[in-house]
Amino acid sequence: MAFLRSIVTAKTTAIAASFAVSCISSSSQFERPSKNLKFDSISSSNPILQLSLAKHLQKTTPPSALHMDAPSSNHQTSSENGVVLPELLTEFMVDMSCQGCVNAVKSKLQTVEGVKNVDVDLDNQVVRILGSSPVKTMTEALEQTGRKARLIGQGVPDDFLISAAVAEFKGPDIFGVVRLAQVNMELTRIEANFSGLSPGKHAWSINEFGDLTRGAASTGKLYSPPLGDLGTLEVDEKGEAFYTGPKEKLRVADLIGRAIAVYATEDKSDPGLKAAVIARSAGVGENYKKLCTCDGTTIWEATSNL
Fold it and tell me: In the 3-class helix/strand/coil scheme, how is 142-173 assigned residue by residue?
């Protein structure tokens, strides 16, 4: 028995060593993870090796997983107004009851610019989309089929501890949703929808703190200048604005608990009109529930216009 244990131990050590060498040899491609990352089952002092080994040993398949190739971190597809957007996996809960519903949903989504692949799980009423199309565009396409749809997850599966975040502006005058999704360690994709703003240009930014006691004025300074500068929003005559684009060097995990602020003009030195806290959002395969926990209504009945 001792002999067998020695063989198993030797083989395990050899496999771990081989994997460690491959991780270390490629570690120069990534920056050091946060010091707060802990993996109790791994004793290595190298945080990059910890992250790689943890994903290798603990990788799991989400419930009712849909088979689809993960997006390449280097592949990008052109989107609206010439903006180049990276591909993501996006999941919707869609009200479907038969194969005819599945065919209608697939046919419609395949006509949307930027959509590369569509897979449907009828049993769980989940539609999974690979591509660069904005969430707003995909939602509108789904609703044009006469079915209710609700975004339930977005990101790159199994690649990041926190891959998606959201900030919600809930009025009473300004409403909006800002979604942030990690594409790779050096790139985040941002999508935003706003209503209730005055026509014209409005500055917006990621600020240091999620303190909303005095609205945008208590969210502190610009986060990690110039990284937190999101530029300007172009608001139309209806008071609506839509933005989608990539942001280099921005990491979603570093933004949780901070705030996104919107300003009255292009000048960020004013106190700001409105702010919302950035909170973790569901990634791909993390939110297959059909009912809202608050009152038991089906998830698509809880959707907002944004």
Answer: HHCCCCCEEEEEEECCCCCCCCEEEEEEECCC
